[in-house]
Amino acid sequence: MSQTAALLESIIPNVASKWPVYFRSIAETMVMVGISGAIAFAIGLTLGVTITITRPGGVMPRPLVYHTIDKLVNFFRSIPFIILLAALIPLTRFVVGTAIGVKGAIIPLVFGTVPFFTRQIEAALAEVDAGVIEAAQSMGSSTTGIVFRVYLKESLSGIARGTTITAINLIGLSAMAGAVGAGGLGDFAIRYGHQRNQLDVTYVTVLTLVLIVNIIQAIGNGAARCARK
Amino acid sequence: MIVLQNISKSFPSEGGGSVEAVRNVSLRVGKGEIQGVIGFSGAGKSTLVRCINLLERPDAGEVFVGGVELTALSDGDLRAARKKIGMIFQQFNLFASRTAWGNVAYPLQYSMTRADRAEKVAALLRLVGLEDKGDAYPSQLSGGQKQRVAIARALANEPSVLLCDEATSALDPQTTLSILRLLKELNVKLGLTIVVITHEMQVVKEICDRVAVMENGEIVEEGDVFSVFAAPKKQITRDFIDTTSNLSKIHALIAERSPLVRLKPGERIVRLRYVEKNVSEALISTISRKFDVNANIIFGDIEFLGGAPIGGLIIIVSGQEDRIESALSFLRSRNVSVEVISDEPDRRAA
Ligand SMILES: Nc1ncnc2c1ncn2[C@@H]1O[C@H](COP(=O)(O)OP(=O)(O)O)[C@@H](O)[C@H]1O
Ligand SMILES: [Mg+2]
Predict the structure, then answer these.
(1) Which residue, A25, A97, B138, B169, could crosslink B94 as a Cys pair with Cβ 3.0–4.6 Å?
(2) Could you tell me if the CB of B47 is within 6 A of ligand 1?
(3) Smallest CA–CA separation between B328 and chain A, in Å?
(4) Angle of helix A101-126 relative to helix A19-54, nearest 10 degrees?
(5) What is A26-228's CATH number?
(6) CATH topology of domain B249-349
(7) Is B85 within 8 Å of A138 when comparing Cβ atoms?
(8) Mutate to test the interface with A, among B106, B153, B157, B162 (most CBs of A within 10 A)
(9) Which residues of chain A lie closer than 8 angstroms to B87, CB-CB?
(10) Which atom of ligand 1 is closest in space to residue B45's alpha carbon?
(11) What pTM value is reported for the model?
(12) Ligand 1 centroid to B38 CA: how many Å?
C-alpha cells in the first residue's frame, strides 16, 4: 500500500499532494452534471415531445407552440457555451443567488444542454413510424396515450442513445463551466495544471474524464440494447 | 352501416396549388357486406377510407357509421367511436416494442381487469390462428403472421366495421389468399362489415360482395361485383378486368403475328364475354351444330363469381359468311357480348 503511494507520488507528485482536492473536484463534477442533467432531461424530454406532437401533421398540431419552441431551441443552440455562461450571469444570480460555484453552474449548464437534448429527443421520436401512430389513432388512443404508450415506449432505445450523447456533452460543458469558477474537474485542471504549470494534474484530469465518458457510454449502450428488444 | 355523403378532400400540393384526392364521393355500405374499393395508385382510395374513421377529416361531406354522424362528434366522442371501427394497413403498423400479445392487448389496456384482458387476448390470438405466437415480437413474425396480429388487434374492441387499406398488398399470393379467407371467415362469423381497399383485381374477386371503382378521386362505377365485372361501363374497369384476364392477350398475339391467330380468308377472331348470370347452355357446341360453323377455342378465361360464370372465350370461327353472321347473332340473343377482333386474313397464308 505504501509502495503504491510512493509510486504515485513519484509519477504524479502534484496530484498526490492534493488527493482531497482531486476527489472533491470529481464529486463537484458529478453533482453539477447530475443536477443539471436531471433538470435538462425533464425539460428537454418535455420540449422534444411537445415539438413532435405540435408540428404540422403531428397528433396535436399547434403551429404557434411548435414554432416558438423551434425558434428558441435554434436560438440557444447557436450561442457558444462560453458566451452563454457570461450572458446568463444576471439570471443565475437572480435565481440561485450566486453565479459562481457548483450552484452557479447549474443554470448555464441547463441552458446549454436543453436545446441539444430537445433535438436528440425529437430525432428519436421521429424514428417512430407514422403508420404506427396512425394505427394507435385508429384504435381511439388519446394524445396522452399516444405519447406515453407509443412514442416514448417505441423510441426508448433512441432516447437512451440521445441521453448518452447529451450526458457526455454535458461533462464537456461542465469542465468549461468549471474553468470560469464553477469548481469541478475543469476548475481543478485549470487552476493547478494550467495556471501553476503542474502538467500531471492536467493529464490525470484528462484520464479521469475519459474514464467517466466511457462508463457513461457503456451504460448508455447497455440501456439502448435493453430497450431495443 | 357506413354512409358517406358527398365527401371531398384536397391536399396542398408541391407546386402551391392543391390536389383533389377525393371529389364528391358518396357510398353506402350495408351491414355485414364486404365492400371493395379498387383503383390504381393515387386514385384517392386511401384518403377515402381514412375519411371513414376521420384519420383524414373531409373538407366537405358527412360520414355516418352505424347511424352516428362521426363528422359531428367531439374529439372525445370520436375516439370512443373509433374503437368500434377497426383498421388494418399495408405495412401492418405493429408496435415493434411489444410482443404479439402486447400488441393485441394495447387497445384493451384501460377497459378491463388483468384476467379478463388475458382471456380476451388469448381468444383473439386463437381467432386469427396465432395462439402459440403470443410471445413473439413483430420482427420475429412473417408478413402474414404480422397481418394476423394486426387483425386481432383491430378486433380487440369488438368493432362492427373493419377497414382494410391494401392489407394484402405486401404479401405473397399464397399468404394473400389465407388473409382474405380469414377476413371472409370473420365477416361470416362476426357479421363484420368490411371495407377493402386494393389495387388488385384478385382481392375483389376473392371476397367482395360489392365493388366501387375509383379514378381521379371519384367513384366512377359501383355495384355488386358480378354486374360490375360482367358488364363494365368504364374503360378503367375494363383495364382492371384485363389485369387478371388473359382475354386481352389476344392483342399481343395478333401484334406479334403468332401462328395461333393467323387467319385464312373468311375466318374471324371473336371475343365472347358472359355478361348475364344465366349462361349455362353449351353455346359453342350449339353454334357448331345449329349453324354449321367451326369454332376453334384459342383460349378461355372463365371463373365463377357468386356462383355464375364470368369471363369469356377467344375463338376463331370459320364457315360460310352468312352462317357465321347468324351464329354470332344467335350468341348475342343469348346475352353473350360478341366482339369481332380481327377478320383480316394473313397475307402470307393467303
Ligand atoms: N397527406 C397528404 N398530403 C398531400 N397529398 C396527399 C396526402 N395524402 C394523399 N395525397 C395525394 O392525394 C392523392 C390520392 O392519394 P391516396 O388516397 O393515397 O391514393 P391511393 O390510396 O388510391 O393510392 C395522391 O395524389 C396523393 O399524392
Ligand atoms: Mg393507398
Answers:
(1) B138
(2) yes
(3) 54
(4) 40
(5) 1.10.3720.10
(6) Alpha-Beta Plaits (3.30.70)
(7) yes
(8) B106
(9) 135, 138-139
(10) 22
(11) 0.86
(12) 15
DSSP A162-211: HHHHHHHHHHHHHHHHIIIII-HHHHHIIIIIITT--HHHHHHHHHHHHH
Task: Please give the grid coordinates belonging to residue A89.
Answer: 450571469
The phi, psi pair for B336, rounded to 5°, reads -105, 130
Contact A212, A220 (CB under 8 A): no
B18 lines ligand 1 (CB under 6 A): no
Q: Cβ of B107 and A156 within 8 Å?
A: no
The answer to whether B152 and B130 have CB atoms below 8 angstroms apart is yes
- Closest-CA residue, ligand 1 atom 24, reads B42
Q: Do B98 and A132 touch (CB under 8 A)?
A: no
From B47, B56, B198, the mutation candidate for ligand 1 (largest count of ligand atoms within 8 A of CB) is B47
Alpha-carbon distances of A149 from A41, A133, A210, B326, rounded to whole Å: 19, 10, 36, 72
Q: For ligand 1, atom 6, name the residue with the nearest CA.
A: B11
Predicted-complex ipTM score: 0.88
Q: What is the rounded CA–CA span in Å between residue B272 and residue B268?
A: 12
Residue A64: phi and psi, rounded to 5, are -65, -50
Instruction: Using CA coordinates, name the residue in chain B closest to A140.
Output: B79
Order across the sheet with B2-12: list the strands.
B18-29, B2-12, B60-65, B68-69
CATH code, residues B2-244? 3.40.50.300
At CB < 8 Å, which residues of chain B contact A?
53, 55, 79-83, 85-87, 89, 91, 93-98, 106-107, 109, 137, 150, 153-154, 156-157, 163
Domain boundaries, given as residue ranges, for chain B: 2-244, 249-349
Q: Which three cell numbers stand for residue B191?
A: 357479421
| B37, B22 Cβ separation under 8 angstroms | no
Is some CB atom of chain B closer than 8 A to the CB atom of A154?
A: yes
Q: What is the rounded end-to-end Cα distance, in angstroms, of chain A?
A: 46
